[in-house]
Amino acid sequence: MLNIAHLSKRFHQNLVLNDISLTVQKGEILGIIGPSGTGKSTLLRCINLLEKPESGHIEIGAFSMELTGGNRRDILELRRRSEMVFQQFNLFRRKTALQNVMEGLIIVQKMSKSKAEIIAREQLDAVGLSDRLYHYPQHLSGGQQQRVAIARALAMRPEILLFDEPTSALDPELTGEVLDTIKKTADMGFTMLLVSHEMNFVRSIATRIIFIDGGKIVEDGPPDEVFNHPKSERAREFIAKMNRLSGPEYVI
């Protein structure tokens, strides 16, 4: 489904991703954990070419390209196959929830407005927002805005969903509704890459975990193995610290 080979990314002299190679199978839910600033979000942004790496090759299904090159058509095709849900929602402020979900279907997929509206309504209903179709972002809570963003991503029917700290901009009381929506999305069989500091949630939803530190994948395995029996000292230190700091978290 997803193959990444020899992905490296620098910011000035800082090597953020160091020769990352990764394969994700169809239907797999990959939880990506690690210290802040270690390249987790950058990995997702390179997959979607929101950041251009110094090296790297990607395959999504039958499509492949060098991440250092590619023409506009290749980049658009890559982004059709992968959709990202951002930390800050990235909704159009002057469009309703319904219009926000319809936008990509009309502009990117060249769908008719009538067909786009049907799909947008279905996806907003799926995330529990059928009563907010005509609300603008400023009239929605942060959790509702993030659910609109998830509906927008789902409407595009991507092969891969990328979640970049989807609850980091939310108040704690709104986090649960978004995590519950992500859980329902996972149950639909989507292939997902999830960057999050919600350790209990990542552990409960992911079928596989990678731990990134210093721009490299240090641990890679099932959640029980990575959380309970990490092989590296660095992962043991990180997980022990997170366990000490964490209070009650949202658990499905």
Core attributes:
single chain, 252 residues, alpha/beta, Rossmann fold, six-stranded mixed beta sheet, four-stranded antiparallel beta sheet, globular
Report on the architecture of this protein.
The chain has 9 helices and 10 strands. The chain is globular, with a radius of gyration of 18 Å. Helix 4 (113-126) packs across helix 5 and helix 5 (142-155) runs parallel beside helix 6 (172-187). It has one domain: 3-Layer(aba) Sandwich (Rossmann fold), CATH 3.40.50.300. It is of the alpha/beta class and 252 residues long. The strands form 2 sheets. It has a 6-stranded mixed sheet with strand order 6-7-8-3-9-10, with helices on both faces. The protein has a 4-stranded antiparallel sheet with strand order 2-1-4-5, with helices on one face.
- Percent of residues in helices comes to 25-40%
Named at the architecture level, the CATH assignment is 3-Layer(aba) Sandwich
What percentage of amino acids are in beta strands? 15-25%
Identify the CATH homologous superfamily: P-loop containing nucleotide triphosphate hydrolases
Low-confidence parts lasting 5 or more residues at pLDDT below 50? Answer: none
Shape: globular
Q: Biggest β-sheet, characterized?
A: 6 strands, mixed
Structural class: alpha/beta
Q: Please list the strands of the largest sheet in the order they lie side by side.
A: 6-7-8-3-9-10
Mean pLDDT across residues: 91
Ends apart, CA distance between termini: 27 Å
CATH topology: Rossmann fold
Total number of domains? 1
> Radius of gyration in whole Å, from Cα?
18 Å
For the record, the CATH class is Alpha Beta
Order of helices and strands: EEEHEEHEHHHEHEHEEHH
Number of strands: 10
By DSSP (H or I, 4+ residues per run), the number of helices equals: 9
